[in-house]
Amino acid sequence: MNASLMSLEISVLGLGLVLMLADLFMAADRRQFLAYAAIAALGALLLASFSGFGSCGLTGTAFHGMFVEDALAVFFKRFFLIAAILVLFISAEFSDRISAGISEYYSLVVFALAGMLFAASANNFTMLFVSIELITITFYVLTSFQRNQLASLEAGVKYLILGALSSAFMVFGIALIWGTTGKLNFNELAAVAAQHADQKIFLLGVLLVVVGLGFKIAAFPFQIWAPDVYQGAPTPTTAFLAVGSKAAGFVLLLRVLFVALPAVALHWVNLLITISAITILYGNLCAIPQRNLKRLLGYSSISHAGYLLLGVAALAGTIHDSTAGGAAILYYLAGYLFTVLAAFAVIALVVRQTNTGDVSDLAGLNQRSPLLAATMTIAMASLAGLPPLAGFFGKFLLLKSVIELGPVNPGYYCLAFTALAGVVISLYYYFGVIRAIYFSREAADLSPIGISGPAKLCLWICLAGIFWLGIFPNTVLNLAVEAAKVLGS
Amino acid sequence: MSILTYISGWPLLAALLLVFVPANYRVIIRFVALAATFLSMALAVDMFCLFRPGTSGFQFEQQIPWVDSLGISYHVGVDGLNVGLILMGAIVGFAAACCSWEIQKREKEFYILLLVMTGGILGAFASLDMFFFYFLHELALVPTFIMIGVWGRGERKNYATYQITLYLSIGALIALVGLIALYLQSGANSFDLPVIIKHVQADHHPLAVKAQDFIFPLLLFGFGILVSLWPFHSWAPLGYGSAPSPTAMLHAGVLKKFGLYGLIRIALPLLPDAAKSWVMVIAWLAIGNIVYVGFVAMRQRNLNLLIGNSSVAHMGFIFLGIASLNLIGITGAVFIMIAHGFLAALTFGLSGYIFHKAGTLEMHELGGLCRRLPFIGTALLMAAMAGCGLPGFANFVGEATVFFGIWSEPALRVVTVPAVWGALVIGAVYMTRAVRNALHGPLPKQWNELADASHLWRQLPYALLLASLLVFGCFPKLLTDKIQPDVKPIISMIAPTPAGVMPVALNSPPAPSN
């Protein structure tokens, strides 16, 4: 038993509890301060993780191999910490639109973060399920937090029903896997998976687990919830859902498929290729007619899940030779983090009335606030994958990992071209957003938008991240390559 | 630091600087843009003069590692293939900045985009690393879309913006797949072009024919879409017709050459077997450009659409030169790339001037403009003559060289005839028609008040471009001497055992008597 490996998770949980308690002693109008305190605490943990203090400098397993601390886990933990910090910035800006219980909101964000941190280290199906539930249940609450908004409640109910359904699938799948193999630990499972690989019930179990994770990452055909929930949920929740929850789904998917069950993943290459291609096309095509910004980003997040699945499909084909696909996924997620959070920060600042939020609300934004207009434009360009921004290099890596396998399986070439078609389609709606900002004829409201200091800091962090990952990819790429090596071993 | 880094770096740096200049400092913004492009042009001229023709390898090289694990580095250098292109690009960049006086609203944003475009494309031409080659081109391409969308003209502006954005993005992405596939198949684990070429040559195993057959069409059609290869040209006339003239000058003049340069620099030496099997296809598609688009140009009533179509038609000659796969033909192709860059920039600049003053480019509404606009009219007349291949202008040299090149390939003689016919007859018909309708004849009353470009600053860009056309038209050796020695290694990679026709060409560069 090695509890020191979990010092980061324990500190984060402690922080969540402290936030809840601090609420009792804090005057109602000063509760925004709690968000900045939480940001400072998480920032300190992030710095500690880079400087080697605390658990991020260690490697090893705890709780009989349930909890693993390796390069992959550390990469994702830093990722989740940065995401939570930026989301808390957005929440602090958003706090005036949440009628009651804002400090609970902050602490729920921190609890969801704890779930994500555990997910990054999960090395056992029990751990996987518990961490997923910790994330999902906090998100049920976070989604319906604006209790006076019908849309928010509706989103919460939808997410609850479909989330519960997917959890049920996952539990059933885990039960079937355990029933056929008698193993829950990923490493032990890897040793015996090959001899069960043609057992129908075992495969059904794996499939059901993948269905549950597919729901988390909003891959086709488990994407139905995403647009509604993205649209209805409070903006900071949507942002955290788009980045944190999706990344948690991906780290678990990577571990299940490539640490626990590489023998199965190898046979699922064509399935993964198909899912990836359909997800890309579905997300992009459905985004075209959208008028609501958050809904549009919901569909775009589906398409980005599809792009990320390119890397999963590539890994499935080469797991024993190269983990380029894994590194590409990690890099893409890092770019996606800054880009999407920049977009949602702008939405939180611009769209004050939650019931609208149309693309046309951005009209005249370049006169109301040049910084917000520039941030949104750069975020859209990065999502579309234009150089020299983060999205371009990420897509480049993903495409490269897929094309590499083209000579082995022509399906990969088809997948690469589908991804290209998706990119071209996506230019249409991303440029539509940019057009609304700069070229709208009539803008109803041209009052300047005041941006508070912390919000400015958040925007600049996002912008710096987008450009840094686009222009100086070396540092993060090396970290991603190191982390992805875990999958190949 | 290599001089090449400065040539593309100054415009990019100036763009960054302009971000921090308040939008109402109009004079400063214009001055910064002009100074940066002028500096870049002066450096390019300097580099062109310092260039030693015939030296093996690249000159003014510089290499900075960027992503080691993927073998990507910032690597610039010039040889005969791109030295002229960079000179042309820098001159056109300065001319385009000079012509930007017509932009009245949101000037700051316009100049930033213009500078990014100029710096990006110059960097792309200087790049010897396939990743940066693509990356910098894409950096230059995106501003085009925005400029057409915001500052474009005409009723179909929005349609044109979406069309050119989607069309060119598809082309660029197909080419990207081709480049990545090339990187992976070469096995050199490097995006560095000289390294890949050395790797392929050293082991005496060029890429497997199967891989070549897969990659070459990707590059041909990916780059082909960017160059408006028939039948993928339909974005060009409308896009140029809707673009503000500095954008059209830079895109038609410089950016479009990127695809052709990519084919000559990357596709031919690395995929020689596939190139040979695709020769006839390229040649016939080029005839499509020359003859079909030539006929389309004849039917145009709008001066800008006519120029746009003629610029598409001219791409056919370059493709023909590439299809010849011999020393004379490819030298001619590179020569036309440079000549057409000056020409396209000149014609779009002039038509932009007329549009700005007259508010229309419908040819039936124009007429007799030479009387009111002696300078602009004469320049347009000369550009039109250059466009239909009058000796003395650089285009003639290039086109004649290409014709010599393809005629020496027996299999291609069949396409030479329609190509020559297209160049001499169709080109002459639409160009003289345009001149007659717009410049000669009676002067409609409403144009009595038109003002000519009398100010030196207004005349400068046109004079500069005309002068370049004439200099290279009268002294083609300036370019051919530089181009030829560096086309030779490419030819030798295509045909390791020299075919009978080539040695003849080596000693007698085809310099027409002028």
What does this structure look like?
The complex is a heterodimer of chains A (489) and B (514). Chain A has 489 residues and is mainly alpha-helical. Chain A has a domain at 261-489. Helices cover 75% and strands 1% of the residues of chain A. Chain A contains 20 helices and two strands. Chain A has helices at residues 7-22, 32-51, 71-94, 102-121, 125-143, 150-181, 186-196, 200-217, 225-232, 235-260, 262-265, 269-287, 293-318, 324-350, 365-368, 370-384, 390-403, 411-439, 453-471, 474-488; strands at residues 60-62, 67-69. A two-stranded antiparallel sheet of chain A has the order 1-2. In chain A, strand 1 and strand 2 (67-69) form a beta hairpin. Chain B is mainly α and 514 residues long. Chain B has one domain. Chain B has 21 helices and two strands. In chain B, strands 1-2 form a two-stranded antiparallel ribbon. In chain B, helix 1 (3-19) packs antiparallel against helix 4. Chain B starts with a helix and ends in a 7-residue tail after the last helix. The model of chain B is unreliable at 498-511 (pLDDT under 50). The interface between A and B is medium-sized, with 28 and 28 residues.
Describe the protein's topology:
The complex is a heterodimer of chains A (489) and B (514).
Chain A: H1 7-22, H2 32-51, E1 60-62, E2 67-69, H3 71-94, H4 102-121, H5 125-143, H6 150-181, H7 186-196, H8 200-217, H9 225-232, H10 235-260, H11 262-265, H12 269-287, H13 293-318, H14 324-350, H15 365-368, H16 370-384, H17 390-403, H18 411-439, H19 453-471, H20 474-488
Antiparallel strand pairs in A: 1-2
Chain B: H1 3-19, H2 26-50, E1 59-67, E2 72-78, H3 80-99, H4 107-126, H5 130-151, H6 157-186, H7 193-202, H8 209-226, H9 235-242, H10 245-255, H11 257-270, H12 272-298, H13 303-324, H14 327-358, H15 369-372, H16 374-387, H17 394-407, H18 413-438, H19 456-474, H20 477-494, H21 502-507
Antiparallel strand pairs in B: 1-2
Helix pairs in contact in B: 1-2, 1-4, 2-3, 2-4, 3-4, 3-10, 3-14, 3-19, 3-20, 4-5, 4-10, 5-6, 6-8, 6-9, 8-11, 8-12, 9-13, 10-14, 11-14, 11-20, 12-13, 12-18, 13-14, 13-17, 13-18, 14-16, 14-17, 14-19, 14-20, 16-18, 16-19, 17-18, 17-19
